[in-house]
Amino acid sequence: MKFGVVVFPGSNCDSDAFHACRDVLGQPTTYLWHKDHDLQGVDCVILPGGFSYGDYLRSGAIARFSPLMREVRAFAAKGGLVLGICNGFQVLLELNLLPGAMLRNKKLKFLCRQVTIRVENDRTPFTRSARPGQVLRIPVAHFDGNWYAPPETLKEVEDSGQVVFRYCDPAGALTEEADVNGSLHAVAGLVNKGGNVCGLMPHPERAAEPVLGSVDGLVVLKSLLENRS
Amino acid sequence: MKARILVSYKDSVLDPQGQAVRNALHTLGYEAVRDVRQGKVFEIELGGVSRAEAERLLPEIAGKVLANVVIEKSSWEILED
Asked: Pick from A169, A175, A181, A100: which is nearest to A140 by CA?
């Protein structure tokens, strides 16, 4: 499985994602510059976390106009695997590859902490190695992670099983307190209808080695490898 | 030609920043303030287009780029020809 990590001006988790794919998973991995027009034959595109274009206008709003995003859109339309982490998730929302939009966190604070999320759908290429309802300990670091969608979109997303992760307490229960940023229905991660595009606010690449305090992020990353076999 | 585009959250979307501003105003004694909605102002200078073209361009720019139509609404006006 060849991974491509997109680099925007202002990306700051690109090296972490690259390290997780190449050194931890042991897979061929390449950086993809946002101004390029070629995905270099990768099997999975990762849009990493950070502050693409300084979050000017809205988080992810300018990155969506990068030349490479045209290729990513075409790749996704053909069923290619795309994983957006944090700012990458925001870019996917702005690209309309995933439904809804991000509002500022409900308590108007930048959140940088360990959270727990529950796997709601284990039948996606991003969660195949998870158990149904498995609770993962993965950190978040964001200001705009309060996912919102109008009622009709929310219903569609729920009915079609597009919610992949929800914020939960360590025991897996959904509580108001556990929904750290105020996301509707505690949504922490989504897939598109085709199941090949996934966005999540928590950072699996920051929970991929024992030295980081959690290896639960590997559940997401290793699922992608299982998909291939 | 000078124009202005205003972008703010739709009425159906909670605006926590506006609420924080309202609460601050209440703390300062401005009890008359019932609600505050926070938004963005874009002052735009256009060149080489007719007024009719500008009237077509401004809402297009607002809807395509400046506002995220899932959560935001926009309005525009031409200030100077």
From this structure: A181
Neighbours of A123 (CB within 10 A): 12
Question: CA nearest A168: which of A126, A215, A216, A213?
Answer: A216
- Find the domain containing B76 and state its range: 2-80
User: Under an 8 A CB cutoff, do A103 and B71 touch?
Assistant: yes
Report pLDDT for A94. Answer: 96
Q: Do the bridges between strand A111-119 and strand A135-142 make them parallel or antiparallel, or are there none, so unpaired?
A: antiparallel
Which amino acid is located at A7 in the chain?
Answer: V
Model pTM score: 0.93
**pLDDT attached to residue A207:** 97
Q: Considering only the beta carbons, identify the residue of B9, B14, B70 that sits closest to A100.
A: B70
- CATH number where A23 lies: 3.40.50.880
A99-142 pLDDT tens trace: 999 999 999 999 999 999 999 999 999 999 999 999 999 999 99
Q: Name chain A contacts of B66, Cβ cutoff 8 Å.
A: 57
% of chain A with per-residue pLDDT over 90: 98
Predicted confidence (pLDDT) at residue A229 exceeds the cutoff of 60: no
Contact at CB, B16 and A101, closer than 8 angstroms: no
Report how many domains make up chain B. 1
Nearest by CB: A101 against B14, B16, B68: B68
Give the domain extent around A75: 3-228
The whole-number pLDDT of residue B81 equals 85
> Which of helix, strand or coil describes residue A90?
helix
**Cβ neighbours of A103 in B, within 8 Å:** 9, 13-14, 16, 71
Q: What is the CATH number of the domain that holds B53?
A: 3.30.1280.10
Cβ pair B70:A58 closer than 8 A: no
